[in-house]
Structure formats: C-alpha cells, structure tokens
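We now fix the convention by which a protein and its fold are recorded. These numbers are not coordinates but entries in a learned vocabulary of local backbone shapes. A record is reproduced here so that you can trace the correspondence yourselves:
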Amino acid sequence: MPPRMASPLLPVSALLLGILSFQLGAAVAKQLFPLVGAQGATAMRLGLGALILWILLRPWRRLLGRQGWAALAGYGLTLGLMNLFFYLALRTLPLGIAVALDFLGPLAIALFGSRRALDLLWVALVVAGLALLLPYTPAQALDPIGVLYALAAAVGWGAYIVLGRRAGAGFGNDAVALGTAIGALVAVPVGIAHAGTALFSLSVLPFAVGVAVLSSALPYSLEMYALTRLPARTIGILFSLEPAVGALLGLIFLDEHLSAFQWLAIAAIIVASIGAVLSARNVLVEVA
C-alpha cells in the first residue's frame, strides 16, 4: 500500500516520539551545564550527534555530483549557531519558555508574506503571549540576556527552515548528517575554549552520548520518517506542541515551575502556531 494511503498512526507516533526525545535531550543537556557549560553541552551534542549520524547514514558515499554546497554550508552554520544560542538561553530560562520563544522562528516563517486578515489574529496572540512572558514585577521578570539568546535562536530556526529546504533539495536525507557535521565545526571549538579538558572526561561521556542520541540521532531519524508520510499541515500542528512538551519536561525533570500567566503565554503561542499552519496555503516545516 502506498505511504499516502497507509494509516497515519505510525508516522504520527514517530513524530510525537521525536518531539519528546528532543525535549528530553534538552532537559538532560541542561543538567550538564554545571560541568561543561552551555557551550560544552552544545559541542557534545553536535559533535557526537554528527558522529552517530555519519556512522548510520554514511553520507560520504554519495557526495560526487551533488549541487547546492553553498546552501548546505549556510544550513550547517545556522544549525550550529541556533543550537548554541538555544543552550545559552537555557542557562537562565525555563525549558518551556525557551522553547516557546524559539518557536517564534517557524511561526514567523508560517506567517511571512500572508495577506489574510485572519492571520492578524495569530499575530495578536503571539504579541499577547510575549506580553504574558514578561511580568511587570522585577522578582518575576525573565533574564533579558536569556530572552535575547532565545530570540536569536528563533531567528536561527527561521533561517534554518529556509536554508534546510535548499540543502535538502541538493543532498536529500544526507543534508542532516552533513549539516550537523558543519554545525559541529562551529560549536566544538567554542565548547573546547569554554570547557577545556572537561569535555573529554569519562564521567561526562555517558550523559553527552545520551544528549546526542536524544537530541540529534533519534529525533532526526524519527522526524525524517514522519516528514515523508504526513502532510505539512499535520506536521506543523504536531510541532506546535513542542513548547508545552518542553514546559512539562522542565517541570518533571528540572523542577521548573511556571506561573499561570506563563502557562497561558505558552498556550497562546501554541494556538497561534496551529492557527497559522491551518490558514497557510504552503507551509514548510523543518526541525531543529
């Protein structure tokens, strides 16, 4: 039976498992920060993740005759910077809030160029969500540097979507392995400069491998399977759940308690994302 006629249960389950794996990997990575810092955790994730993906996909066998090297280089560079900024944001922001701010990148791509009046509602929801994330009392205020890092990651995610489409057109499934390797070339030197020999500690290695598997190898593989079997609209709606998943895992594993206003802000951003996907004519959804 052709994939388009098959039951969507398996690819939907794969995508949801990939989302859960990615956010769980971020929760584990945050626990590495006291040992190697956010820069070191990023280096471990992308460095080991690239190694795992190269072993699994062996992209070097299909490099001859490929087109689009500039797009691939931009894709990999964006991947490295996006992950570095996101982990730097996690130093001072709860996981759910960092993911919600990061998700503004794909949301902006979904809304970009739209001329529908209904889309003003989704923009208004995003503005309302951001207002709720910025409390008026100094005791509850978010760290402004962390917010800036999360917004930089959001810009990176938006660029990642555009460049990822071009890189994927030239390199197919190998773009993930190749782009992750380029991203590692960005992140690993920064991680070594910050953490030094701590990156090579045997006591840290099991956690680093766990982060690489949970945040790169496993979700990328699951999501690639789902991307070829589900409509873009369905994928966009499911990806809109990421901020809520991040907030729940932050609560469970990191004891990060959010206020009622912050939960409401995350809900507003999720609703805006779903609405933007449902109203868009052509939506491209990629993963970070």
Q: What stands out?
A: DSSP finds twelve helices and no strands in the chain. The chain has one domain: 7-279.
